């Protein structure tokens, strides 16, 4: 059975120029222990579609779907209270730009302990001990000291590890990672990806990896969904997608990779897209 099943998801925003459709009738499905990569350029609706699932889009957004099920439960019929019991506990998300996602006014330890208190009822020494264990698990050096640190006192890679600790605090069944390696140097990127994959294996989570990096896709995914301007262009298992992409846009994404460059100039996605239609 699918852990998350979405059919015909559409998201629209009201703008001064009229309604803008950011996500246009897409399907998403992921099972336990499976890694689904959602890939595409910036503005293709990757993050918006998952924020819609999390219920984190602003009120002016209009969200419709024929099916939105989590673990066999109909999310479209859930009350706000029922959804809040799931979001953050059974479904968790690692957001882009960890430094801006963490609250600068509170210590990193406090922010992790808040998750533990809200969803698991842990308080005081019990919450502190669990937060310490999480910091150790995600590889934060001097974890006891870092619990007392504020986000600005940590590096970008350490802040990302704090975000991961918050996301896995309740051992979720489904983890959504939104560009988890953005703005990190190559060495730290590899460490973060290895950490996510080891946690996914340890907890048996379903993992949705949102990215524009085809290298990340090749390294982590079981299946790949390609989006462009809010629509799904193609979906395939990772090996089939790289060896035999069906859609012109997918071929354009792959042609724009540096290792596929020919001649004196790198192709852009637009070059490949326009040349393959």
Q: Explain this structure to me?
A:
The chain is α/β, with parallel strands linked by helices. The chain folds into two domains: about 200 residues, Rossmann fold; about 30 residues, no CATH class. Helices cover about 40% and strands about 25% of the residues. It contains twelve helices and eleven strands. It has a six-stranded mixed sheet with strand order 7-8-9-3-10-11, sandwiched between helices. Strands 1, 2, 4, 5 and 6 form a five-stranded antiparallel sheet that branches. Strand 10 and strand 11 form a beta hairpin. Helix 4 packs across helix 5 and helix 7 packs parallel to helix 8. The longest helix has 18 residues. The chain is globular, with a radius of gyration of 19 Å. The mean pLDDT is about 90.
Structural class: alpha/beta
Strand content: 25-35%
Distance between the termini: 37 Å
Largest sheet, if any?
A: 6 strands, mixed
> What's the architecture of the largest domain in CATH terms?
3-Layer(aba) Sandwich
The neighbouring-strand order within the major sheet is 7-8-9-3-10-11
Number of domains: 2
CATH superfamily of the largest domain: P-loop containing nucleotide triphosphate hydrolases
- Can you tell me the CATH topology of the largest domain? Rossmann fold
Report the top-level CATH class of the largest domain.
Alpha Beta
Give helix and strand order, one letter per element, not per position: EEEHEEEHEHHHHHEHEHEEHHH
| Radius of gyration, CA atoms, in whole angstroms | 19 Å
pLDDT average, as an integer?
88
Tally the beta strands: 11
Shape label: globular
Low-pLDDT segments, ≥5 res: none
Number of alpha- plus pi-helical segments: 12
Helix content: 40-55%
């Amino acid at each position: 059975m699918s852990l998350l099943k979405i059919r015909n998801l559409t998201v629209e925003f009201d703008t001064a120029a009229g309604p803008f459709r950011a996500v246009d009738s897409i399907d998403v499905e992921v099972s336990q222990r499976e890694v689904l990569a959602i890939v595409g350029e910036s503005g293709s609706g990757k993050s918006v579609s998952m924020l819609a699932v999390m219920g984190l889009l602003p009120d002016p957004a209009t969200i419709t779907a024929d099916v939105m099920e989590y673990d066999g439960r109909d999310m479209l019929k859930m009350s706000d209270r029922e959804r809040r019991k799931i979001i953050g506990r059974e479904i968790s998300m690692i957001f882009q730009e960890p430094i801006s996602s963490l609250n600068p006014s509170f210590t990193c330890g406090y922010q992790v302990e808040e998750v533990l208190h809200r969803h698991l009822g842990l308080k005081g020494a019990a919450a502190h001990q669990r937060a310490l264990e999480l910091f150790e698990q995600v590889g934060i050096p001097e974890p006891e000291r870092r619990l007392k640190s504020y986000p600005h006192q940590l590096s970008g890679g350490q802040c990302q590890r704090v975000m991961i600790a918050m996301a896995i605090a309740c051992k979720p069944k489904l983890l959504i990672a939104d560009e988890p390696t953005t703005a990190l140097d190559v060495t730290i990127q590899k460490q973060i990806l290895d950490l996510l994959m080891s946690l996914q294996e340890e907890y048996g989570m379903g993992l949705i990896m949102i990215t524009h990096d085809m290298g990340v896709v090749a390294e982590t995914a079981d299946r790949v969904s390609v989006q462009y301007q809010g629509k799904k262009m193609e979906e395939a298992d990772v090996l089939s997608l790289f060896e035999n992409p069906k859609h012109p846009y997918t071929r354009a994404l792959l042609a724009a990779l540096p290792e596929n460059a020919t001649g004196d100039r790198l192709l852009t996605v637009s070059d490949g897209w326009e040349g393959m239609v």
